[in-house]
Amino acid sequence: MIPIPSPSPRSSSVSQSSSQATDVAIVGAGIVGLAHALAAAKQGRKVTVFERNPYAVGASIRNFGMIWPIGQPVGVLRDRALRTRDIWLDIAPQSAIAIDPCGSLHLAYHADEMAVLEEFLAKNADGDASNLALLTPTQVAEKSPAVVQEGLLGALWSRTETIVDPREAIRNLPDFLHRAYGVEFHFGTVVTDVCHPILVAGGDTWTAQHIFVCSGADFETLYPDLYRTSFQEGGLTKVKLQMMRTAPQPNQFRIGPALAAGLTLTHYAAFADCPSLPALKARMEHTMPQFPRWGIHVMMSQNASGELVIGDSHEYGWNPEPFDRSEINQYILDYLKTFAHVPSFDIDTYWHGVYAKLPGKTEFIASPETGVTVVNALSGAGMTLSFGLAEEVIHEVFGAPTPVPTP
Predict the structure, then answer these.
(1) Of 9, 152, 311, 353, which cross-links 243 as Cys (Cβ 3.0–4.6 Å)?
(2) Report field, pTM of the whole predicted structure over 0.90
């Protein structure tokens, strides 16, 4: 169950007159907002989404496009990730979104990395045996022609990881939601004030039964005091990542599964209780101090166009620097080349993204006033968790009436 804190009163100068109404108003057309639009629309509610840009351009399009259940610990979060994956697999074909259930490989080149993989498999095999396996180097080569074989001890194969192109997904989902469920979108429309049941969007006044604020790294426009308090009391912050993308690989070369190595084992909570992890972290902090300093772990996915998406780093702060560091990108590429080789690592595009994170939590949910729910800070796992989380939140807010049949 998703805890929704008790509301607190708030005053506003918003006019109480309006000629435009909706059951559910959603602020933000990133993946969190779109997921809530889908979950509410499936209940037969009239949903209206407001997005300040002509299309969403925040963290929702600045990521790997990975739906990554393997990174979530067994229990509520793994179940939420798998539910999200199921929804992606259902709606992607209806939305003209290319989707690849390619799975993933976590590669081990050191004994401590292999120990973590063995411990992880031992802890998870009972509930996930059909999706997980430890592979020999020969078996790895059969899965991916991109893996460096020299020094490879083995790998963890996971069947559940799935890839989309986030640019395509975030652009196409609004059209699907409109066609299939009648969701109304107002792009290029900034919501400047909320006082339930009223909100002001693009200078127009609307009423809504319930308002969901899914504004990502924008802590400043709506409920800034809520975010400021959460920063002071709970450490809510922003995270800047650096990423890059190659041009499509020559001769239609495909890497197969998404690839990761030892650094990734230190990043995801799924591996946190493996007994060998502290020794692995200690070795990396001693031999590669630049990686923990910049929060670097290195992964690579490939979209349907054949482009390789590579990253990433993690810099924390309320106001991340807008200037990217070339040395971070070089650290990422240098480490990547220790476990992957492809026809071309020539980089076509560099970028950074910023998302919200609440340390120690997997989401930030608050009700700053009656009829308003803020949903944020999925900590960089929006593509993996949003659809499942949205179903839980919508159920918590509205209950579970008879859903509208899926188109």
Answers:
(1) 311
(2) yes
